Amino acid sequence: MTEAGNLAGLREAAPSQAELDRRDTEKSQKIDVSVFSVSGSISMDLQTFLQQFVNALSLGSLYALIAIGYTMVYGILRLINFAHGDIFMIGGYLAFYGVGIFAMPWWLSACLAIALTTVFGVGLERAAYRPLRDSPRISIMISAIGASFLIENLAIVLFDARPKAFPVPGLFAANHVVGGIHVASVSLIIPLVTAVLLAILLWIVHRTRTGMAMRAVSTDIEAARLMAVDVDRIVSVTFAIGSALAAIGGILFALKYPRLEPLMGIMPGMKCFIAAVVGGIGSIGGAVLGGLLLGLIELMTIAFLPELTGYKDAFAFILLIAVLLFKPTGLLGRNQGEKV
Amino acid sequence: MLSIRNLSVHYGGIHALRGISLDVPAGGIVTLIGANGAGKSTTLNAIMGLVRASGGSVAWNGEEMLGKPTKNIVQSGIVLVPEGRRIFPNLTVDENLSLGAYARADRSEVEADRERVFGLFPRLEERRRQKAGTFSGGEQQMLAVGRALMSKPAVLMMDEPSLGLAPLFVRMIFDIIRQINAAGVTVLLVEQNAKAALEVADTGYVMETGAIGFSGGGRELLDDERVRRAYLGEI
Predict the structure, then answer these.
(1) Segment B186-199 mean pLDDT
(2) Min Cα separation A283/chain B (Å)
(3) Which long-range contacts link A196-205 to residues 24+ away (Cβ below 8 Å)?
(4) Are the beta carbons of B99 and A213 separated by less than 8 Å?
(5) How does DSSP classify residue A168?
(6) Which of A150, A233, A248, B222 is 20 to 30 A off residue A127, Cα-Cα?
(7) Of B162, B157, B161, which is closest to residue B29 (Cα–Cα)?
(8) What are the pLDDT digits (tens) for A257-271?
């Protein structure tokens, strides 16, 4: 089957992510066998490894993008933004409607979707979190859970519960065979985009005045207030950055797994939260490490123990439990203590 | 002139400040002494807008400050060095100082002020690129004071600046307070170390359970029987 035909098929049937992962794995194994059947099993294993490594890198990069949003919001407000996965879903849908209904070029649609999702994330903080900032921590957490359910159910009403096939532009769908490794463009683009965004983010956080204020607010919100820092503005900037990254993550996710549904944010959202915790919540480097690690563990396990494919989503939770048992602050986390 | 009238604060059902009144004249040093829990820190936090006052007024050169955001209060020249120093441990000395000047628009003067702070605390300049969390308590207190000076204070309020410091640093901090005041900054000092505080202060207020018990000149209070018994450890 050609890649184009393959994609046309996807558009009609819109197969689930698990199904697509399975196809990826199968495809790569098929290719390995056909190309390397002569050169022996060791080389075949290396090939399989590299193949899966590329896939894992792109999945892990996606996780990292979304995990950064969790970790930044937690760092600033000590709040787990349960609606973050749903913001990711909205990014995907908005990009879909830009192309599908308004017939925009994909890049314009993507930019608009990112901008609108950013506004949405900032608005969510204004409406659902800011009024509760001085209330007990549990109130704002419940508000976040409520916001998540609200967005999911609104999405079912507005976007329709039936899955939609995301139109993948040729640029992303193209397939390359490099040294026997079979790679879709999107799998190369994702880590690249992530690396660029991460560099920009680190520059903002460590080299700008706003970034300095963000670091101050995340260590001691009251002391930051005493420095005449406008804490509300810093919180808005944090939600803007997190939501923009989630939107970009949502669009890239839809390019890799071209199937949209209103509840598509739940599982990636949960996994990326886990990635943030595993890396050490509050730490941007930790979120990236956690995301990459999670992507790697997930796909490598499927690649080498294909019979465990059905348990794919469980690995994240096993990793979470292990980290919480042995290093509760996460791999790169510091003990922040309880905030007063 | 900072003029506080009938300032009240409630924490839940607790009446933490029961309508206190005090005046901090421009150019002076005023100290607020009293036992733990008397409401000294609450007074400072209420002036800064960090805790909500339930009544009263805080007038700064005739302008009402209560109800304004902390940011505006700092920008109008009222600056607090908080209890426990509260420096940003994972930021460098330079970044901590820059945060002190965060809302200032006069960029060139900010750099001059940074040099002035380094003149006052040469230790900070030597270690300007170092993370503040690696500092000793005394050095952190210097940084906290330096950071506050970067906000260009007209009134500098200090909450327990000598708490937990070695005697050498305590002496140094009180020296610095005199120097800052000599440079024209009004000082409102909250201290447990009543003796040292009353020695530098023009006026002292003694707080007892959320209210001002009595007040007087610094020297005068040092000789006051009640103060000697309650706060200077004499029988």
Answers:
(1) 94
(2) 12
(3) A197/A65, A197/A245, A197/A248, A198/A64, A198/A68, A198/A284, A198/A288, A201/A68, A201/A241, A201/A245, A201/A284, A202/A284, A204/A241, A205/A284
(4) yes
(5) P
(6) A248
(7) B157
(8) 999 999 999 999 999
Tokens of A128: 């659902």
Bridge pairing between strands B63-64 and B203-208: unpaired
Residue position matching structure tokens 């009403």:
A157
Phi, psi of B62 (to 5 degrees): 90, -10
Question: For residues A175, A179, A182 and A187, what is the CA-based torsion angle, rounded to 10 degrees?
Answer: -70
Could you tell me the pLDDT band of residue A14, with boundaries at 50, 70 and 90?
A: low
pLDDT digits (tens, 9 = 90+) for A181-192: 888 899 999 999
Interface of A with B (CB under 8 A): 209, 212-213, 215-216, 219-220, 222-230
CA pair distance A94, A87, nearest whole angstrom: 11
Query: What is the homologous superfamily of the domain B2-231 according to CATH?
Result: P-loop containing nucleotide triphosphate hydrolases (3.40.50.300)
In words, the CATH class of domain A14-326 is mainly alpha
**Which residues face A176 on adjacent strands?**
A183
Q: What is the CA radius of gyration of chain B?
A: 17
Top pLDDT among A259 and A21 is at: A259
State the average pLDDT for chain A: 87
B114-138: pLDDT as tens digits: 999 999 999 999 999 999 999 999 9
